[in-house]
Amino acid sequence: MIDTPLLPLVILLTSLSAAPVLFALPERKARLRTALNLAVAALKVMLVILLAWKASQGVIYDVRLTVLPGLDLHLQADPLALMFVTLSAVLWLVTTIYSVGYLEHGPHRARFFGFFSLCVAATVGIAMAGNLFTFLLFYELLTIATYPLVIHNGTAAALRAGRIYLIYTLAGGLMLLLGTLGLWGLAGTTDFVAGGVMAEVAADRPGAARALFVVLIVALGVKAALVPLHGWLPVAMVAPAPVSALLHAVAVVKAGAFGIVRVVYEVFGIDLAQSLGVTGPLAMLAAVTILYGSIRALSQDDIKARLAYSTVSQVSYIALGVALASPIAAIGALAHLTHQGVMKITMFMAAGNLAEGFGIKKVSQMDGIGRAMPGTMTAFTLAALAMIGLPPFAGFISKWYLAQGGLAEGHYWVIALLLGSSLLNAAYFLPMLHRAWFCEPPERVAQIPARPRIDLWLTAPPIITAGFVITIGVLANAPFSPLEWVRFIVDTEFDGGL
Amino acid sequence: MTEMTPAMIHGLAGIAVFGIGLMGALAATDRLRRLVALKLCAVGAGFVLVAAAWRTPPAAPDPVPHALVITGIVVMISAAAVALAIIRRLHSLEAETDE
Amino acid sequence: MSDNLPDPMILVILLPLFGTVAAFVLPRAAPVIGLATLAAMTAAVVALGRAVAQAGAVSLPLAGWGAPLGIELRADGLALAMLALTALIGIAVGFGALGTFARARTSAGDGGQPTSRQRAFFWPLCLLLLTGMNGVYLGADLFNLYVMIEVISLAAVGLTVLGGTVTALRAGLAYMYASLLGALMMLLGVGFIYLQAGRLDFEGLAGVQPTPALSAAFALIFVGLALKAALFPLHFWLPDAHANATAPASALLSALVVKAGLYILLRLAEAGPFPGETLLKLMGILGTGAVIWGGVQALRADRLKLMVAWSTVAQIGLIFIALARGGADGLSDSWRAATLLILAHALAKAAMFLAAGRIKEVIGHDRIREFDRSPVRPTLAQFAFALAAVSLIGLPPSLGFIGKWSLMDGAMRAGNWHWVAVTMIATLLSVAYFSRALTGFLRFDRVRAPVTEHRGWALADAPPFMLALLAIGLGLAAAPILVILEFGQPFGVSP
Q1: Cis peptide bond N-terminal to A392, omega within 30
Q2: C334 vs C407: CA distance, rounded Å
Q3: Most exposed among A45, A249, A429, C217, judged by the fewest C-beta atoms under 10 Å?
C-alpha cells in the first residue's frame, strides 16, 4: 500500500493534511496535539527513509499534475531532492519535540503547529520540486506559512519584524515569478534537468540569459540572505526559538540556497553558467556575504542576533561552493547544506533554552551558564566548534572540500577567505564558550536552579542534533553519510566529472 | 455627405437630446433634477432607435427598433420608479435626523 | 435533451425569475424558496453543461423566432463557466445570508430598517439578480443584453439599499444614477449599431465591415459598460455602494454584478471588429490607473469593507489589463486570462466580503486600526479572509495566481513588458493593503482583556471559508477549467 509511485505526494500530504487538523484542534487538547505532531513527524521520517531506499534501488518517482498547458506541478525524488527532504524531515522531528516543550503553556498553539506543519510541507515541496514552476509554488507557500510563525508573539516588535520579513520575501517571490515566467518564455520549459535547459537560449540571446540568471539569483538570494538582501534575517529573530531554529536551519534560508543550487546546476548548467561569466560575480557576492556576516556577528551582544549574522555568513558557503564551478567545491557546498542545518539548529535550540531557563538573551549574561545547563551548553559548544571548522566535526568537512575545490580551480583567494572566515567564527563563538564555561556565574544564576520548564523536551533535541554534528563529521566516509550522498549527487550534476 | 433625410434629422435630434440629458445628469446636484436629466437621455436614445427603424423609406418601417424602444421605455420607467422610491425614503430619513 | 422538460437554458433563466415572484409573495418562506430555487437552477446548469460538453455551443431560438428578429439564447464554454460560477456564489451567499439575517434579528439595527424586512427582500432581489446574470450569459444579441443588464441594475440597487441606512441609501442612489447612465449609453450605442449594421445578434455583427460610425457606436457602448464595470475613472460609485451594503449583498455586487459589464465586453470582443488597437490600449491604461488608484485608496481606507471595495476597483483594472495585454491580435488568447481572473476575483471577493461581514459582526466594528484592540477574534472568518487575500494577491497555487500568470505570460510573449510590470505593482500594492488587516488580526499586545478566540462554528462562517478554499484550490484545477472554457470554441480555434 505504502509503496506507491505517488510516494513523494504522500510525503507532501502527510504534513499538508496534518495542518488543518492541527488548526481545528481546540487549544486545551495539548496531549492530542502533541501525539499528532510527533506521529506525523515520525511517519514522515519513515516515509522519507523508504523513499530514499527505493530511489537508491533505482525506482524513479515522477508525480505530475498539469496546471496549465505545458506547465506541470511536478514532484520527483532525485538525489538532490532526497538529501534536502531527509534533512528537513529529520530536523522537523527534532524541532517538533522541542516546540512541544517550548510552547507548553504558550498561547495559540493550534495556530502555531498548524503553520509549522504547512511550513514543513512547503520545504518538502521545495525539495522535491521537479521544475521551477513547482518550486515557485512552494517557495511562496513557505513565505505565507512562516509569516504567522515569525509574528507568533503578537507584539509590536514581532509585527514590525514580520512586516520587514514579508516585504523582503514577497518581493523575492515576485522576482522569482518574473524569473520563472522569463524561463518559461525563453526556454519553453521550467524543468530542472541536469546540465540545464538554457543552452539554446544562451547561444541565441546571451544577454537575456544573463539577465534571467541575475533575476533568479536575486529572487533566491533574498531567502538565502545574500548581502545586500539579508536585512530580514537578523530582524526575524524575534520569532520563538523553534521557529528561528527552523528558519535558519532548514526552511527559509535553506530554501533559497537550495534554489540557487537548482538554478545553477539544473536550469543553466554549471558549464553554461561559467561560460556566460555569471559564476564569478556570484562567487564574489558569496565571498562578500561570508565576510560581512562574520564581521557583523562580532559586534552583536544579543545571542540570537549573533547567530543570525553567523547564518548570513555560513549559508553563503553554499553559494560560494556552487559558484566556484568545481566538482570538489560543489561537494563542500552541498555537504554544507546539511551540515550547517544541523549545527545551526543545535545552537538556536540551545539559545532558546538559555532564554527560557534563565532569561539569558545576551552574550554578556552568559557567564558561568555552562555549569547551570551542562547538557544544553555542551551541545552548543560542539556545534560552535564545528562551525568554526574544527576537525573532525561537520563544519570542517565542508570547509575542507570548499578549500580543495578552490585550489583545484586555481582560486587561491578562497583559501584566504575560508581562513579569514574561520578566524572570525572563532572570534565570535569562542568568547561565548569562554564565558559559559570559564567565567564565574553572577550570584543570581548560581542560586536559581533551572526552571522546571527546562525539561527533557527542551534539552534532548539540541543534544540529539549535536550528536549528528559529531557523527556526520566522524563518519563522513561511511555509506549513506551526507558526504557520500553528496558525492553521488555531484557525480550526476557534473556528468561524471569527478 | 448624403443629403439630410428625415431619418438623419431624427437621429441627430436624438443625439442632441441625449447630450442635453447627459450634461444635465453630470451637472445637476439635486436628486430629482438628475433623474429627470437621465430620463431625457432615455428619450434621446429612443429617438435614435425610432430613426433607425426608418432607414429605407418609403418601405414599411422596420419593426425591430420599435420593439426595442418600447422595451427601453418599460425598463426606464421601472428604473425611475426605483430611484424615486429611494429618493423618497432618503427624504424622510433625512427629515428624521434633522428634527 | 428530454422532450418533457423545457430546455435547460430556459430553465436557467426562468427558475430564478419564478423564484423571485414566489419569494416576494411568500416572504416567510423566502429562504426556503430561495435555496430550493438555487438548487434547481444548479441542476439546470449541470444539465446545460452536459449538453454543451457534448455538442459544443448550443443555441435556442425562443418560440421558434430566430435572429435577427427574435430572441436567441446561446451557451458555450465561457457562458457555462460563468453560469456555474454564479450558481456557486449564489448558493454560498444564500447560506451566508441565512446566518447573517437570522442573527441580525436579535441585535438592534443601527438606525436601519427592521431586519425582518431585510430578510424578506433579500431573497427576491438576490434571485432577480441571478435571473439577470444568467440572462446576460446566455443572451446572443445586444438588445437582450441591455435589458438583462438593466434587470441586474435594478436588483443590485435594491441590494445596495437593503441595509436601509442613510449612507447606504445615498450610495445606492449614486449607484443607480451611474448605472442608468451606463445603460443609456449602451442603449444609444445599440441604436447606432442597428442603424449601421441592421442587426444586433453577435453572429450577425461578426461579419460587419468596420466603419468610423460603427467604431463610435462601440466606443459609446464601451463607456457605458466601463461605467457599469467600474473601470477607473468611472469607478466613483463603487466603493461607497459596496462598502455600505450588507455583507451578503456586497458579496453579490462585487463578485457578480460588475462582471456582467465585463462579460458583455468579452462577447463583443469575440464577435467583431471590436475593440480596436486604440481602445485596447486605452483599456490597459485605464486599468493601470485603476490598479494604482484603487491600491492607494485601499491603503488609506479606514474600514475593512471599504478597503475590500477599493480592492475590487484595482482588480477590475487588472482584468482589463488582462484583456489588453496582447493587443488586438492577442485577443484570441487574452480572453482566457481575463476569464480566469474574473472567476478568481468572483470567488475570492465573495469570500472576502462574507468574511468581512462576519468579522464586523463578531468584533462589533470594522475599523482596521482597532482590530488589534478587540478581545474577541473570529478566527475562522479571519482565516477565510486571509485565504481570499492570498488568491487576490495572486500567490500560488490560487486561481488568482493562475490568472496573473496567464496575464503576464501573454504580455511577455507579445513583448508588452509594461503590463508585466503593472501586474507586479498590483501584487505589491495588494500585499500592502491586505497585510494591514491581517496584521490587526494577529496582534495581541494591545488588548486589555484576556483574548478569547471565537472558536464556535456558525453557519455563516462556512460559506466564506468554502469559497476561499475554492479560490485557492481551483488554481490546481486550472487545466480542466480551461477545457470547459474551450467548449464551443469562443474566439475561434485556439492558436
Answers
A1: yes
A2: 7
A3: A45
pLDDT over threshold 50, residue A496: no
User: To which H or E segment does residue A65 belong?
Assistant: strand A62-68
| H or E stretch covering C122 | helix C115-138
Give which of A64, A68, A109 to mutate to test C binding, by max C Cβ within 10 Å. A68
Tell me which chain C residues have a C-beta less than 8 angstroms from the C-beta of B68.
143, 190-191, 194
- Is B41 near chain C, with CB under 8 Å? yes
Is C118 strand, coil or helix?
Answer: helix
Asked if residue B53 lies in contact with residue B61, where contact means CB atoms within 8 angstroms, the answer is yes
Residue C310 cell numbers, joined:
477599493
Kindly state whether B55 is in contact with chain C, defined as any CB-CB distance less than 8 angstroms: yes
Alpha-carbon gap: B56 to the closest alpha carbon of chain C (Å): 11
Confidence category of residue C57, pLDDT binned at 50, 70, 90: confident
Contacts of A234 (CB under 8 A, 6+ apart): A296, A305, A308, A309, A312
User: What 3-state class would DSSP assign to A276?
Assistant: coil
The answer to whether C83 and C17 have CB atoms below 8 angstroms apart is no
Asked if residues C66 and C212 have their Cβ atoms less than 8 Å apart, the reply is no
Pairing of strands C58-61, A62-68: unpaired
**Closest Cα to residue A69, out of C333, C488, C244?**
C333
Of A144, A177, A178, the CB nearest to C390: A144
User: Could you give the 3-state DSSP secondary structure of residue A191?
Assistant: strand
Give the model confidence (pLDDT) of B39-56 as tens digits. 888 888 888 888 777 766
Q: How confident is the model at residue B58 (pLDDT cuts 50, 70, 90)?
A: low
Burial A451-473 (b: 16+ CB within 10 A, else e): eeebeebbbbbbbbbbebbbebb
* Rounded Cα–Cα distance for residues B68 and B83 (Å): 22
Distance, CA of A173 to CA of B55 (rounded, Å): 60
* pTM given for the model: 0.91
* C-beta separation of C317 from C286 below 8 A: yes
Residue A476 to residues A339, A387, A395, A434, C467, Cα–Cα distance (Å): 11, 16, 11, 29, 51
Number of H helices and number of E strands within chain B?
3, 0
The closest of A152, A144, A298, A169 to A237, measured between CA atoms, is: A152
A contact set with C (CB within 8 A): 23, 26-27, 65-69, 73, 107-108, 136-137, 140-141, 143-144, 148, 151, 154-156, 159, 162-163, 166, 170-171, 173-174, 177-178, 181-182, 184-185
pLDDT in tens, A17-33: 888 888 888 877 888 88
Instruction: For A134-158, give one letter per residue: b (16+ CB within 10 A) or e.
Output: bbbbbbbbbbbbbbbbbbbbbeeeb
ipTM: 0.88
Chain C CA closest to residue B42: C184
Which residue's entry shows cell 422595451? B71
The length of chain B in residues reads 99
CB C346 within 8 A of CB C421: no
Q: Which residues of C touch A181 (CB under 8 A)?
A: 405, 408-409, 412, 420
On average, the pLDDT of chain B sits at: 81
Q: For the purposes of burial, counting CB atoms within 10 Å of the CB of C217, is it exposed (0-12), middle (13-18) or buried (19 or more)?
A: buried
Smallest Cβ distance to C455: which of A26, A136, A137? A26
Residue C298, pLDDT > 50, answer yes
> What whole-number distance in Å separates Cα of residue C246 and Cα of residue C118?
9
Comparing CB atoms, the residue among C412, C451, C476 nearest residue A65 is C476
Whether pLDDT at A286 is above 90: yes
3-state DSSP assignment of residue C72: strand
